[in-house]
Structure formats: structure tokens, C-alpha cells
Specification:
The protein is α+β, with helices and mostly antiparallel strands. It has two domains: 42-46 and 126-244, Glucose Permease (Domain IIA) (Distorted Sandwich); 54-102, Membrane-bound Lytic Murein Transglycosylase D, Chain A, CATH 3.10.350.10. Helix content is 16%, strand content 29%. It is built from four helices and 16 strands. It has helices at residues 4-23, 40-44, 65-72, 76-82, and strands at residues 50-51, 54-58, 96-100, 136-139, 142-144, 147-149, 152-155, 161-163, 168-176, 180-186, 191-198, 200-201, 208-209, 214-217, 228-235, 238-240. Strands 4, 7, 9, 10, 11, 13, 15 and 16 form an eight-stranded antiparallel β-sheet that branches. Strands 1-6-5 form a three-stranded antiparallel β-sheet, with no helix packed on it. The chain has a three-stranded antiparallel β-sheet with strand order 8-14-12, with no helix packed on it. Strand 5 (142-144) and strand 6 form a beta hairpin. The radius of gyration is 25 Å and the shape is elongated. It starts with a helix and ends in a 7-residue tail after the last strand. The relative contact order is 0.16.
Length: 247
């Protein structure tokens, strides 16, 4: 049997240990709290636009978006999203489209026997996501004057509720230069959505949210002085054009 005096000594030692540990502003043992670091993909690209290499190709009579993509060796879907072309059959001669990564314009490869059913289609996934806020799109995804924009911006009154675009989990909540108050939600199928310029974030990291749930309020804490929401959809951290996913 352990002597009572020994037990009392242990209790006194434990009490001192707790007082010192808590007095220092920390627990006497280490309990790590996971917080996702500031995402690198947002530090590289800013809402104000990022310089991007490429050329503008002027569409000529008879050219198709698929043939242009094949000639320059770029992905058809990426080319369509970057240039906001939801219907590849409606491109017109004289229009200019941006070709990322190209260093010079090319003459198109002749299309001798293109079979329509073998040509990849531009995909618009108009289910699964909802508009995070109602308002006018004042800035689009894509390349404008040599600057790439990786999200859209939706104007709305200050304080308007911002809704989760899909069921998910908050994996980042904080502030980031250019983005102001920022939320990142992780969804199924390797998708993430980003909500920036918020007046206030209403959910914390680790919180699971439902589609349509209010997670923030529209603000002007980012690069714009006017209240608006900066919104991105990413798959495997690659920016995708939200207008190809929103109903």
C-alpha cells in the first residue's frame, strides 16, 4: 500500500505543475491544433490579376475551337473556360481568344476528316453548386489585357449573407493580402470553393456546413472599395471557371 504522505506529495507536485503550465498561457501537455497554412495557390495568384504568358489567336473562317486547341497543344476544356466560351460552336471569325503558354501564333493544322462524334465536348457542370450570393458579376474569370483572373466577383450590398455553394468543411478561415477576410471550403470530388473580401466570417475552421448555409457577409476587405464577393471554384487546387459550374 502506498503511504498517504507519498500520495499527498504527488498531489502537491501535480498542482504546482498545473499552476505553472496554465500560468504560462498553455496546457501542461501539448495538444496540437491543426490549422491549414495560408494556401500557396492564393499567394501566387491575386484577385488583382496575375501576369500570364501567352498569345491572342484571331479566329479565321472555318476554324473550330477544338482545332485551335489541338494546334497549340492546349486542353480544350481549359481553353474554353479561360475564354468564357460555353458553346464552342458559337465562336466567330475575327474574335480573339487567349492561348496560354504560347509564344507565337500558329497556322492551324488542316482538318481533313474531322468526325463530330470523336471531337471532345466542352463540359458545363451546372449541378451541385449554387450561387453564393445574388448580384451582378462585375469581374469574370479568364485573361484580360494580359492578366489572369482566377475567380469571379459579384457585387452585392454590404452585409448581404454569403451562402455555402455546396456541402463541405471549412479548411481555412482568416485573412490574406489582397483577399481580406477569407474562407475556403473543401467539398467532395477534390473541389474547393473560396469566398473573399468578406465583411465578417461567420464559421470557423473545421466546421461542416450545408449548401445554402450562411457562412459570411459581403464586405470590402479585399482589393475593392465597393462591397462584393470574390468567389472561386477549384479542383485539385486548379482554378476553374465558376460560370461553368453555377446554374
Amino acid at each position: 500500500m502506498i503511504p498517504v504522505a507519498k500520495i499527498i506529495d504527488w498531489l502537491i507536485t501535480l498542482e504546482i505543475f498545473l499552476i505553472i503550465g496554465l500560468g504560462a498561457g498553455c496546457l501542461p501537455w501539448h495538444i496540437p491544433f491543426h490549422k491549414e497554412k495560408e494556401p500557396d495557390y492564393l499567394q501566387v495568384s491575386t484577385p488583382a490579376g496575375t501576369k500570364v504568358k501567352g498569345v491572342y489567336h484571331t479566329i479565321k473562317r472555318g476554324e473550330t475551337l477544338w482545332r485551335i486547341a489541338k494546334t497549340y497543344g492546349v486542353d480544350l476544356q481549359m481553353l474554353a473556360e479561360l475564354n468564357n466560351i460555353e458553346d464552342a460552336t458559337k465562336i466567330r471569325a475575327g474574335e480573339k481568344i487567349f492561348i496560354p503558354g504560347a509564344t507565337k501564333t500558329k497556322k492551324l493544322i488542316p482538318a481533313y476528316k474531322e468526325i463530330s462524334y470523336s471531337i471532345p465536348k466542352v463540359v458545363k457542370q451546372k449541378t451541385g453548386f449554387i450561387w453564393p450570393v445574388k448580384g451582378k458579376v462585375v469581374s469574370k474569370f479568364g485573361v484580360i489585357n494580359g492578366l489572369r483572373y482566377e475567380g469571379i466577383e459579384i457585387a452585392a450590398p454590404l452585409g448581404t449573407p454569403v451562402k455555402a455553394s455546396q456541402d463541405g468543411e471549412v479548411v481555412y478561415e482568416g485573412q490574406l493580402k489582397g483577399y481580406g477576410n477569407l474562407l475556403i471550403l473543401k467539398h467532395k470530388d477534390n473541389f474547393k470553393t473560396i469566398y473573399a473580401y468578406n465583411q465578417v466570417n461567420l464559421v470557423s475552421q473545421g466546421r461542416k456546413v450545408k449548401k445554402g448555409e450562411t457562412i459570411a457577409r459581403v464586405g470590402n476587405t479585399g482589393r475593392s472599395s465597393d462591397p462584393r464577393l470574390h468567389f472561386q471554384i477549384r479542383k485539385k487546387n486548379q482554378a476553374r471557371n465558376p460560370l461553368f459550374f453555377l446554374p
